Structure formats: structure tokens, C-alpha cells
Automatic annotation (TrEMBL):
PANTHER family per UniProt: GALACTOFURANOSYLTRANSFERASE GLFT2 (PTHR43179:SF12), RHAMNOSYLTRANSFERASE WBBL (PTHR43179)
Domain of life of the native organism: Bacteria
Family: Belongs to the glycosyltransferase 2 family.
Protein name as catalogued: Glycosyltransferase family 2 protein
Coiled coil: none
Gene3D superfamilies linked: Spore Coat Polysaccharide Biosynthesis Protein SpsA, Chain A
Top-level taxonomy: Bacteria, Pseudomonadati, Bacteroidota, Cytophagia, Cytophagales
Amino acid sequence: MLYIIIPVFNRWRYTRECLESLRQQTSQAFRTVVVDDGSTDETAAALARDYPAVEVVTGDGNLFWTAGVNLGIRRALALGATRVLTLNNDVVAAPDFVAQMLAAAAAHPTAVLGALEFDAATGEAIYGGERLDFRTNTRTDLLQELPTGQRTGLHPVTYLPGRGLLIPQAVIEKIGLFDEKRLPHYLADFDYTSVARRAGFPVYCNYAAQLSTYPEESGQTLTRQHRSVKGYYQHLFGIRGGGNMVNFTHFALKNCPGPYLPYFLLNGYARRIVGYFLH
């Protein structure tokens, strides 16, 4: 049984839109767990009133993404999940999203699967997975490689984001849950899927499974909208900082092959130090 895990903190209008897209799925062979991490808006009341079939797990406001997702996964496994799918609340699933994910999972039962993403405002494809060369710390964007007519099927990638990530139970049994201790927010998803790949599980972006996202709502984008000394510090060291140096170090130590590690670290530090001002 597939369980969809959605961590939320406020922003009910996005959560409602996400849940409505799940209601419209052509396949209803799933259940939904929302991890409400201490929302102070109408989230709790609206979930109870409008979505009684949704399993709600609550936190105290200090879970952040990784611990929130782990809490939801533990609940799903206790309820009998054989697959889990992590989904951000600010995404809208195409009507056949679940059906396409389940079809790919049936054909590749040990694979970790991600989705093709589109900008909800423009309809433009914005994320189709990437491959990372640890030797040079350079990334290949699959969307730039593939002509529009070839954006179909499964494509092997180095890692995947957690915005629409299907994980088989076999992966959890072998490598455990997300690393909430060392990666409480950013990079936990890339780390987890990279670890899964190194443990022998295929990692694919499934171009048949499609999501619409709001890229301007990401924490990294919001942090950079109003640049300041405080924002720069948060970028490099805050839990929600997209350039968090400590998180990057943990990711590198866990995933980069030893011979390439010194350059990968130095290059990554330099990118983060200057990247705040370049985007």
C-alpha cells in the first residue's frame, strides 16, 4: 500500500490545493498522512473538517522537513505501508501522477522514483533530474540534454528532491530513514537518494509522473529576495539556509568518493560563499 507523506507548517491554501489534486487522482490506491508541525493558521481545523480520511500527525513546530517526514513515514509503516511517497504541500499533482508512479514502481519494485516538475505559473518544465560528477562538482541538467519530444520514460539520476519522491519499503529496511540529526532540512532528500543509489537501488526521474510547483515559494528563493548580512549568515549557517556549510560538509563526507573529496569540498564551499550574491 502506498502512503503519501506531506509535511506542513501553515500555508493552508497550498496544502488545500495539494490535497485537492490528490482527490482528483485517477488511481486512489493510496492513503495520505499530513504531518502538521504546529501550524498556527486554519490548517488543523480545516483538515479535520474537510479531509477526515487524511491521517494527521502533529508536531510542536520544531521538526523541520527531515524530522517531519520521518515522523510521517514511521506512522505510515505502522499502518502497513509498503511504499511511501514524500510530497511537499506546495505542489499540485497531475491527475495521473499516482497512477504513473505506481506503474513505474510495479515495473521497477526496488527503484526510488522522482517526478518531472513544471512551474505552476508558466507551465514550463523546470526540473527533470540531474547527474552529478563528484570529480569536478559539476551537474548535468537532464532537461537541457533531452529535446521536448524525448521527455518520457525513466531516467537515471544521481539523487532526487523530496517534493515527489517514491521510496519502496526495501530501501527503508536497508538504509533507514532520512538523516534528521545531521541534515535537519536541506540536502536530506539528495543525501537519502544518493545513499540509496550507492546501496544498489536504482534512482530514476519518472517523466510520466508530473507535478506543478511554486519555485518562488522555496526557502532559498525567499532568503535571497532581500539580501542582508543576516540573510547571508542564514544562507551559510541557518537550518533553512540553502547554502548551509555544515549540511554540505555532511553530504560530501557521506557521498563523495574519497579521492575527489578535497576538491569537491573546496569547490562547494566557494560556490556557497559567493552564490548568495549571484542568484
